[in-house]
Amino acid sequence: MELMLSAIKPTGDLTLGNYIGAIKNFVKLQDDYNLFVFVADLHALTVRNNKEDLNRWIKEVAAIYIACGLDPNKATIFNQSDLPQHAYLGYILTCESYMGELSRMTQFKDKSARGNNESIGVGLFIYPTLMAADILLYDAKYVPVGEDQTQHVELTRDLASRFNHYYGETFVIPKAIVAEKGARIMALDDPLKKMSKSELGDNKGSIRLLDDVKTIRKKIMSAVTDSDNLVKYDIENKPGISNLMTIYSSLTNKSYDEIEDEFRDGGYGNFKKAVADVVVEEVSKIQVKFNEIIKGDYLDKVLKEGALKAGAIASKKIDEVKRKLGLII
Which long-range contacts (CB under 8 A, 24 or more apart) does 52-61 make? Predict the structure, then answer.
């Protein structure tokens, strides 16, 4: 099987957007690929976190992976920070990178456009080279990502090609895979921005996977739509309804045409109730499994075994890189 790798950064409570856009697809792919899925906790350090919150988020991401259907007997699940090889290769790839290409990366570019560059942490600037290391350590052929991360995979491809050119064939050139449907779930209170896990407080725009069902229903029934009362997929003119249709479609496997026919005479109230019903049903199943997994030492065993398996591969790749660079005589 070809190796596929992806990860989620633990910078908040995971949302329905994370599930539909990423985790749900991981579950489908684990039977067809040698799937490596990790908690990208080192990437979380680009901002300052409360240590208790970060520790909780790391455990919750790993537990939710399994609760959503990832099978530790099929997929390799681990924490990034348990393997120092990630940071080691990240530094080497940083040395192979250019200031210009890193400054064009979306996250740094957007933040630098809003303020003083001198106040931006260096971690954000070199975030893409650590992400490249995450991928290249394992010779991952495929990398499932959201649309906003494809630029990082392109940089990874460039860095791999550059290293291979100067030092000889070392890295597999990866390919980004973006899900055709549901890859980008938008905020319920502002369908022009992505549903975020990093917003704290009430966060009416995001459905957290661990929200209670009453809260989930309330958020969906309060979702911003428009005054047409027509259930129709039109991302430009009806972004709110289109977002709810994407959620409904992703959880029921119904096409947009089928959804439009189903609610042609139903209006927004009936449609929102139907969306709330399928979301509550899906999330409730995840929560039951999550509450079982988070107890005891099962999760620790899974992460330890995953780290051992991933570490064996990562160590071999680091030794190969060191030989190519002349760090091993």
Answer: 54/10, 57/10, 57/11, 57/12, 57/13, 58/10, 59/294, 59/299, 60/10, 60/13, 60/14, 60/210, 60/290, 60/294, 61/8, 61/10, 61/14
Q: Kindly report, residue by residue over 297-308, the tens digit of the pLDDT.
A: 999 999 999 999
Whole-structure pTM over 0.85, yes or no? yes
- Pick the closest to residue 75 from 141, 138, 133, 5 (CA basis): 5
- Give the residue range(s) of CATH 1.10.240.10 domains in the chain: 213-291
The CATH classification number of 3-183+297-325 equals: 3.40.50.620
d(CA 121, CA 108): 10
Task: Specify the pairing of strand 34-39 against strand 3-8.
Answer: parallel
- For 196, the token pair is 């975020």
Catalytic positions are 111, 194, 197
pLDDT in tens, 223-250: 999 989 999 999 999 999 999 999 999 9
